[in-house]
Amino acid sequence: MAAWLVFSFSTALSAVLALAMLAVPASVAGHGLSDWWHARHGELRHFYGDNNLTVVGVAGIAVGVVLARLAYTVAVHQRAVTRLRRRQHDGLTLFAAGADDLIVVPHPVPAAYCVPGRRGRVVMTDSAVRVLAADQVDAVVAHERAHLSGRHAFFLGAAAVLERAFGGLVPVFARSHREIADLVEMIADDAAVRACPRLRVAEALLTLARGRAPLAALAANGSDLPRRIRRLTVPQRPLGLASTLAMLAALTLALATPLAAVAGPVATAAVVTTCTNASH
Question: Cβ(114)–Cβ(120) under 8 Å?
Answer without folding.
Answer: yes
